[in-house]
Design a protein that fits this description.
CATH architecture of the largest domain: 3-Layer(aba) Sandwich
CATH superfamily of the largest domain: Vaccinia Virus protein VP39
Shape: globular
Largest sheet: 8 strands, mixed
Structural class: alpha/beta
Number of strands: 11
Length: 291
């Protein structure tokens, strides 16, 4: 009698174990089925319609789903590439198919301040295109010797500010000396870096880059920071030599086309507004932060 009871308990225990195993198997199958159906639903573009979802299910197999899961992810293409064969005036570093130009050193101050620049580049027309208002905060990115910085300062007035951004020590020293000599109290000299102009977040109305962008070593990183610094509706203005015009006698890597600028600004979320073609050799290309 005792032996019979013991065997009955063993059978009940074994049955419980089997039931639990079956439950686990069923639950696992349900999870796998749910995952397959979910994958099929997403892969089929389920947002289109419920009927499309049903139509695609017969063509989906579990092995195919799992092969897709286990397959190695496609490598993300690098932002930049280096090429051995490149323009001697460039760096050999390319961004979106464009070679980045060599940076003008502090020896270029004399060239930036040349008397002929007034006639060649018409800075007054550049200032007119900026539509500056008193109280505006303007960043002169790659300010150099301050050629535009100290022309902008009176336009934004005492309630405004010009952030003169540079990374080269000689340029920074020149900017500080000139700001002090001119008593330009609304000019703030900012030491930037190759990847960050160090501008206040959502604190700038306009960022101006005159013959600078094509030399940025890390354009994606810098322009991402620029976008963060802009207020909503804030603008970025590029003044660049026209690449589209072979008659413009400037080294090719120091030119920019409007099409290329549009591609590169689209990558950082800036919206093209317009191109102003009032200068003899350069175009003024304007972008905006919409949100």
């Amino acid at each position: 009698m005792k032996e019979h009871a013991r065997r009955k308990r063993l059978l009940l225990t074994w049955g419980t174990v089997q039931s639990l195993e079956m439950l686990l198997i069923v639950d696992l199958k349900r999870c796998i089925l749910a995952y397959i159906l979910g994958s099929a639903f997403v892969g089929a573009g389920a947002h289109d319609s419920f009927s499309q979802y049903h139509a695609v299910l017969p063509s989906v197999s579990a092995p195919a789903v799992f092969r897709q899961i286990l397959a190695p992810a496609s490598p993300t293409p690098p932002l930049y590439e280096t090429r051995a064969n490149h323009d001697p005036n460039g760096t050999g570093k390319f961004y979106m198919g464009r070679e980045i130009a060599q940076v003008m050193g502090p020896g270029g101050i004399e060239w930036l301040d040349r008397p002929e620049r007034e006639e060649e580049e018409h800075p007054a027309k550049v200032l007119d295109s900026l539509d500056l208002r008193p109280g505006d905060v303007v960043a002169d990115l790659g300010a150099g010797s301050g050629y535009f910085t100290f022309r902008i300062a009176p336009k934004v007035g005492k309630t405004g500010k010009v952030l003169a951004v540079e990374i080269q020590e000689a340029m920074l020293n020149t900017l500080r000396a000139r700001a002090a000599a001119m008593k330009a109290t609304n000019v703030e000299v900012v030491r930037g870096s190759e990847i960050d102009p160090h501008l206040p977040v959502s604190g700038v109305n306009l960022v101006l880059l005159v013959d600078v962008y094509h030399e940025l070593t890390y354009p994606f990183e810098v322009m991402t920071r620029v976008r963060e610094a802009l207020k909503t509706g804030g603008r970025v203005v590029f003044v660049e030599y026209r690449k589209e015009d072979p008659a413009v006698r400037i080294k090719e890597v120091h030119k920019m086309s409007v099409e290329q600028l549009e591609r590169e600004m689209n990558a950082v979320g800036l919206v093209y507004v317009r191109t102003v073609e009032t200068l003899p050799l350069q175009h003024i290309v304007i972008f905006e932060k919409r949100n």
